[in-house]
Amino acid sequence: MEVQVMDHPLIQHKVTLMRMKETGSKDFRELLEEITMLMGYEITRDLTLEDVAIETPITKMTGKQISGKKLGIVPVLRAGLGMVQGMLNLIPTAKVGHIGLYRDPQTLEPVEYYCKLPDVEGRDFIIVDPMLATGGSASAAITLLKERGIQHIKLMCLVAAPTGVEKINADHPDVKIFVAALDEKLNEHGYIVPGLGDAGDRIFGTK
After folding, report:
1. Would residue 27 show up in a list of annotated catalytic residues for this protein?
2. Which amino acids does the record list as binding 5-phospho-alpha-D-ribose 1-diphosphate (predicted)?
3. Candidate list 27, 44, 171, 201, residue with the active-site label
4. Please, which residues have CB within 8 angstroms of residue 198's CB and are 6 or more apart in sequence?
């Protein structure tokens, strides 16, 4: 499996807190935002830089700044919304798109019901979704971006199952996957084990 597990001690500590069933929605949201920031720091390590002439209070100099268009952040609705602010804390000028998918009850395949993206020309995109379980929704989201001409895509998730990673590797071998934890398996209901439950319900306090 091609996947980068970000095993920084702070990330692992916070993931453990999120897994606990007694962690409420407020703390869950805050922890997710914090982990997203920590992961975002690493996932953006390869951004292209360019020279820029500036003047400090002391002298003129050549500094570095991110070149090209700012990143595009695309949450998969609804749980992916919980990761947006963490990325915007790092890159306030990033553009945010949204992808909405639901699972067809007959075919069990993901179906698009909403897709709104910023200008895609020359922009790198990061898809964010806390859970990578079967990989169906994430794969469909990547396909939607590619159909709109986007070539540089990364996938950032909190917790993944091997099934989901293998699905993305097979469907989109060019897309790098970044996760905070790679868990054991999926159960008979499609939940990640040990996982952390339904991320959307825990973020928004629904059942």
Report:
1. no
2. 78, 103, 129-137, 198
3. 201
4. 191
3-204 topology per CATH: Rossmann fold (3.40.50)
Catalytic residue among 56, 59, 93, 107: 107
The reply, when asked if residue 18 is annotated as ligand binding, is no
SS3 114: strand
Phi, psi of 164 (to 5 degrees): -65, -40
Distance CA 120, CA 68 (A): 12
130 is in an annotated binding site: yes
4 and 45 in contact (C-beta within 8 Å)? no
134 belongs to an annotated ligand binding site: yes
Pair 72, 127: CB distance under 8 Å: no
The tens place of each residue's pLDDT in the chain, 207 residues long, gives 799 999 899 999 999 999 999 999 999 999 999 999 999 999 999 888 999 999 999 999 999 998 877 899 999 999 999 999 999 999 999 999 999 998 777 776 788 999 999 998 889 999 999 999 999 999 999 999 999 999 899 999 999 999 999 999 999 999 999 999 999 999 988 899 999 999 999 999 998
131 annotated to bind ligand: yes
User: Is 201 a known active-site residue?
Assistant: yes
φ, ψ dihedrals at 206, nearest 5° = -105, 170
Is 198 one of the annotated binding-site residues? Answer: yes
Residue 198 designated active-site: yes
Secondary structure class of 85 (helix, strand, coil): helix
- Of 103, 143, 163, 171, the active-site residue reads 103
